[in-house]
Amino acid sequence: MSVKDDDKKYNDVIKTLNQLHEVKAPADFEAELMRKINSEKYKEKKEQSIWSKFFIPSRLVPSAGLAAAAIIVLFVVTLNPEEIEDPLIMEPRVREDIIEVVDYDESKLGREDKKDVNEAPLEKRTTMTESTVTEEEKSGRRKEGDVLEESFADDKMIADIDSVPTETIILGTTEPTAVSTEGETEMATGLAISKEKLNFRQIQLSEEEQQVVDQLREKVQIQVVDSLKIE
Amino acid sequence: MDRNLHELTDEELILEFQQNDTERAFEILVQRYKNPLTNYVFRFIGNYDACSDVVQETMIKVHRYKDSYSSVAKFSTWIYTIAGNLARTEYRRQRRRQFISISDYGDEHKTFDIPDEAYRPDVMTDSGIKDEIIQKALLKVKDAYREAVILRDVQGMSYEEIAEILKVNEGTVKSRINRGRAQLQILLKDIYNE
Which of residues A157 and B68 earns the better pLDDT score? Predict the structure, then answer.
């Protein structure tokens, strides 16, 4: 069937549709259209300006710097992880050498009347222990038992000092006297005290002072011998 | 200058608008196409307010995407294609909205008369009443057929041009037009008997 035949068949329909009134656009169509177009242009500019705000070089510099700093901090933190110990949980470090001396001091030499006498040996003891440790480190570590034996020996020695008459100790510590030789001390007290292990102040005396000291020493020896004889 | 622009063809005007951004060329195109497009879109969707919005949207798209027009095709084909796409979208949206509003009543078996706001009382005459009947009949025709019938019998376009706008071959266009006419003939039977 050709187009002409179709048109003839539906002629009434075609005629009806052709007779329809043309619907026209509203009177303010163009004004409204231009208003919409202008508002779209404005919107586009506004959107562009919002984006351009983010990409202004002057605004990018600080943000880029901030980002770089953040990356550096991140690297530093991840490369050097520190194990942070909780001070409330971790056990305190024990300095055995000091505790040893303090315990010793309190338990064995707890008397206040001999405080002056004990202070100096305590210091000496402390230094002794430290020196012992350094010697150990040099010569190789000794067994712990040996150290204990030594400390017991020291205890015995200090106990011996306690048994020595007060005068002798005063002479040895408070007054500036010449240090007596080991043999002489043995003579006076009947005990062998190692000079090296005592904290004497070694003073170089003049001849006059030496004479005075010798006289005093003789007196003391005489007194000691007398007292021994009496006993 | 203005008189010269009025003498230009549609294709020359859009070219002028593309190359020199001459707003006046665009305005002339709007003047030329606002009524034919309004008529076409109104006959398709049957709602004057929606039709006006669709035509405005079409013009805005022409303005914004003027560079996408290729001089190979006719300007009328291009602008009708845009308007047709927008009209179809709007028509589907309207139908969906009507369906939802009817469903809200809850009674699926009951039918409702949807008021047609396309015609205003101030323009209602005898011919107006006849127009309303024809318009209602048109809206009952299947979308694809209606579109082809409007372009051919209302807008007076050639089969070739309709085929380009609808992006189908001419044979399909003829077939759709005939089927649409056939449906309309049945729907408008009472008018012809008068």
Answer: B68
Asked if residue A177 is part of any domain, the answer here is yes
CA angle A177, A181, A187 (to 5 degrees): 105
State which residues form the domain around A200: 165-221
Number of domains in chain A: 2
Flag if B191 and A40 touch (Cβ within 8 Å). no
Answer whether B159 sits within 8 Å of A25, measured CB to CB: no
Q: Which of A190-194, A212-216, B95-99 has the lowest mean pLDDT?
A: A190-194
Q: If one looks up domain B120-194 in CATH, what number appears?
A: 1.10.10.10
> How many beta-carbon pairs under 8 angstroms link A with B?
83
List Cα–Cα distances, A152 to A98, A149, A157, A159, A188, in angstroms.
Answer: 16, 5, 9, 10, 25
Residue A116 within a domain: yes
Mean pLDDT value across residues A87-98: 66
Complex confidence, ipTM: 0.79
Segment A87-102 shows an average pLDDT of: 62
Complete DSSP assignment for A186-221: HHHHS----GGGS--------HHHHHHHHHHHHHHH
Q: Could B154 and A20 be called an inter-chain contact, meaning their C-beta atoms sit closer than 8 Å? A: yes
* Alpha helices in B46-169, H assignment, sequence order: 48-64, 75-103, 126-140, 143-149, 159-166
Of A163, A181, A202, the one marking the end of a domain is: A163
Mean pLDDT, chain A, rounded, equals 67
Q: What is the CATH number of domain B1-118?
A: 1.10.1740.10
Phi-psi region of B5 (alpha: psi -120 to 50; beta: other; left: phi over 0): alpha
